[in-house]
Amino acid sequence: MKNEDLRLQLIRWIAEDDATAQRLAANGSLFDGYHPEMEAIHRENATRLANAVAEYGWPGRALVGEDGAEAAWRIAQHAISEPALMRAWLRMIEDAAEQGDVRRMHVAMLVDRIRVYEGRPQLYGTNYDWSEDGSCMTPMIGIENPECLDERRREMGLPPMEWRRPPPPGASRPRDLAVRAHEMAQWAKRVGWRP
Fold first, then answer.
1. How far is residue 46's CA from residue 68's CA, in Å, rounded to a whole number?
2. pTM summary value
3. Residues 6 or more apart whose Cβ sits within 8 Å of residue 146
4. CA–CA–CA angle 64, 70, 73 (5° rounding)
5. Does the pLDDT at position 1 exceed 70?
């Protein structure tokens, strides 16, 4: 049974996220740390999603259709200031994937996002950041058991690993990668990802 109202809300919420990111990217401020306006949208959407999940359970395909389920997962993926919510949602998304209600790749990407913010190597190699020389994007933190990576990716519906990617359109390399890494680690401690 589909919940069309919830589906439309989820789509609207992620559209607000996208519009904010596009506006901040256009003026060049999106890529210089975690922009406070972007964080505010992510926190607001996390609260909205938490309320929806409390009422309906995880919004997968059966409840909100493919596009609604995609929007719910993207909101969860962007809720990086809410470690407890992301961890709780991961368990729900894993259960939903077992039932075929969400895409398995969404599980993989959320697992990696959580591991990166916890400071642990990724399992699937889905999170990228600037290379040390600033020429491209490479996997963040590293990969656990890289010899089995493509097999793990295949099981989750992901293509073979790309070890180097071009940067996002409009992105400019941070002025000082070491300073940026330190700031990211401090932020991760402040919001509760790391001790």
1. 15
2. 0.93
3. none
4. 105
5. no
